Amino acid sequence: MKYAFVEKNRRQYGVPALCAALQVARSGYYAARHRGPSDRQKRRVDLTARIRTIHQASRESYGAPRVHVELLALKVPCCRNTVAMLMRRAEILPKAIRRFRVTTDSRQTKASPNLINRDFRSEHPNDLWLSDITYSTPRQRSPPGWGPSCLSMSGMHRSLELMSQ
Asked: What is the C-alpha to C-alpha distance for residues 89 and 101, in angstroms, rounded to an integer?
């Protein structure tokens, strides 16, 4: 970690000053520059590639515990915490799959009577109001979150009012 900092800032401050400030030997820095990746780094790169493959094969729905089970089934020795750490570092996140759930019973619902017979004109104020309600998704709202929105319109003035929580 210290050698990476020296490598990043060596042009601005110089290698001798950085090594002295970090209390590391210059010879160690120069040796580390020409050294290849360690066995641990190679294993982590290989394991991350396998994790990404398993994650994509699961349609990006598997988290660390399931990916760990799949790796064990492939005879790849690893720890679940290592899998979780590598998934975090590679920003591999499972998608939350929500099942469709019916929330209304349309067989029991009765339609309201049509009182205006599609005649949307009004001659007196507050004689006719039209409205519609909808539930907006979290991304569509500001502030974010699920919530109802109601749009009302006066039959005489044709003015719109938006009411939301």
From this structure: 34
